């Protein structure tokens, strides 16, 4: 994937150690780099509670897949509700990545042979982020990194509904494959054991839990939708907020009807927030903190554009 054209970016909420985490990931993966860094302006400090000029976000790539890490404070913690599949054809490379990610972390499922893969494992790294590694002799996705949405607790059994919803909202979308639980699992019979689908030509996975557990979705991991204009911002905001949580709709963030967090934002927000003119950066941050849905007219006015 050409990550400059990546429409949807996973957004990871750390406490104050986003740069430390990204530095770690860029040593774990040989094909990795930091793309850009934004820093907190003085405006809005009473809300974001971060020191002026401290790191706000780190935009980075691993295996040609873009992600963003945020220093957001201690409010949200990672769990298993959203993880990242790492799909490899090279067993040695898989084992190297598994070993590095496991340093200071913990195994959720040991790296071993399973019915669905000759080598698979699930871990939580030292920062709490969940990763699943899988050996594939024949690639099922053009991407090496694929986000997986795990439906548990009150959302268990809703994976199929969510996939239908997301593929109706996003363009260039389709279902690649779907496998359901059988009668041998009465708890999840007929629900999604594993599904793979594409949104804006990006691969995603989803599954319902096959047992009783509860990993609620939260802002710890959200998905940022980069929009080219106000029309696109309005479209994705209106579609994704339908049936969602109105209280969670602020600063371009929203929760959909399943509790998954999204950010609907204008493309190039890093450049906007990284303006070297400190007064302009403060005006822009003030404008962002006062909105729910992004309004490009207000943003341009804050930036001094007509």
From TrEMBL:
It comes from Antarcticibacterium arcticum. Residues 6-134, 145-264 form the PhnB-like domain. This is VOC family protein. It holds the Pfam family 3-dmu-9_3-mt. InterPro entries: Glyas_Bleomycin-R_OHBP_Dase, PhnB-like. It comes from the Bacteria. The lineage of its organism: Bacteria, Pseudomonadati, Bacteroidota, Flavobacteriia, Flavobacteriales. SUPFAM superfamilies: Glyoxalase/Bleomycin resistance protein/Dihydroxybiphenyl dioxygenase.
